[in-house]
Amino acid sequence: MDNLNTNQSVAPVERLTLSQEWDKVFPKSDKVDHRKVTFVNRYGITIAADLYKPKNVEGSLSAIAVSGPFGAVKEQSSGLYAQQLAERGFLTVAFDPSFTGESGGQPRRVASPDINTEDFSAAVDFLSVQPDVNPDRIGILGICGWGGIAIQAAVNDPRIKATVASTMYDMTRVTANGYYDGDDSAEKRNANRRALAARRTEDYRNGRYERAGGVVDPLPEDAPQFVKDYHAYYKTPRGFHPRSGNSTDGWNATSCLPFMNFRFFEYAGELESAVMIVHGSEAHSRYFGEDAFRLLKGDNKELLIVDGASHCDLYDNLEKIPMDRIAGFFTSNMPQVR
């Protein structure tokens, strides 16, 4: 029983190499204290996060864990949201998902509907035991693909008292069915599975994982507007970050395999805690949020459509992101019970 393989419980936190410079794509706030933290998830992967705390605030704070967009890092949109919410009185963490950014896990650039959902609950584990956090007032916020993951995490984790999904994707749906469900057929899914299975064989033979590529660059003239919007964020100084897969060479090509065989929101109607889904009226992804909202039950659910906003406007456009409404939603739905 002295064998670590038989008696190890909570995994040890891995010593990660974390950047200590301010390398975010947004300016540092003078209203907020910032530091790097790490915590371990249920699969033994060490997660790296930026912790933001309002200055000169004492006592037990409400806390929010933030992640996304899918393929981004905490130095991009999630960090901006976390810092903005800290300015409004919350203790927040913006974290890199497993296998990405500064977080641990091998191989790199792998996504998993199960492990990524767990990443949010691991952040709740961490926040729940902090001396300056009220464990009964913890919420989560997911952006883009992490919006759907956030709702899925809340379904399974009643410690999460309120959830905001901003400009959300359902990654299981878009992977299996394509955009607007245009590839929703067994024939097209099976063709995709055969191609990805062949890719697995080649990857194993070559001893390395082929990357799928990040946001397309250079940008084709006939690219859809939402692809142009992604390029304008991830591939320009506005949002480029060297650790971001979307800014560089993307996910492993086979990383999408489990999302075709997994369905979010099967039990969404059982979710008792509060949810706000925020979408732009002009977002190509708006249908994901509206369809997910129809599955939710109860009078503590809210769909907020931002007039004139595109998908990527809600990444970093503070004139479009309804940050005060989001902060108010968390405050109203994480009641003081201690």
Helices and strands in order, then pairings?
Blueprint: H1 4-7, E1 32-40, E2 46-54, E3 61-67, H2 77-87, E4 91-95, H3 113-128, E5 133-143, H4 145-156, E6 162-166, H5 171-177, H6 186-206, H7 225-234, E7 274-280, H8 286-295, E8 301-306, H9 313-316, H10 323-333
Parallel strand pairs: 3-4, 3-5, 5-6, 6-7, 7-8
Antiparallel strand pairs: 1-2, 2-4
List the uncertain runs.
none
Alpha-beta classification: alpha/beta
Which term fits the overall shape?
globular
**Count of strand segments:** 8
Helical content, roughly?
Answer: 25-40%
Give the strand order of the largest sheet, numbering strands 1, 2, ... along the chain: 1-2-4-3-5-6-7-8
Largest sheet: 8 strands, mixed
Give the distance, in angstroms, between the N- and C-terminal Cα atoms: 41 Å
Radius of gyration: 19 Å
Average pLDDT level:
95
Note the beta-strand portion: 15-25%
Order of helices and strands: HEEEHEHEHEHHHEHEHH
Q: Helix tally? A: 10
Question: What is this structure, in a nutshell?
Answer:
The chain is of the alpha/beta class. It has helices spanning 4-7, 77-87, 113-128, 145-156, 171-177, 186-206, 225-234, 286-295, 313-316, 323-333; strands at 32-40, 46-54, 61-67, 91-95, 133-143, 162-166, 274-280, 301-306.
Your description of this structure?
- The protein has 338 residues and is α/β, with parallel strands linked by helices.
- It is built from ten helices and eight strands.
- The protein has helices spanning 4-7, 77-87, 113-128, 145-156, 171-177, 186-206, 225-234, 286-295, 313-316, 323-333; strands at 32-40, 46-54, 61-67, 91-95, 133-143, 162-166, 274-280, 301-306.
- Strands 1-2-4-3-5-6-7-8 form an eight-stranded mixed beta sheet, sandwiched between helices.
- Strand 1 (32-40) and strand 2 (46-54) form a beta hairpin.
- Helix 3 packs across helix 4.
- The longest helix is centred in the middle third of the chain and has 21 residues, at 186-206.
- It is globular, with a radius of gyration of 19 Å.
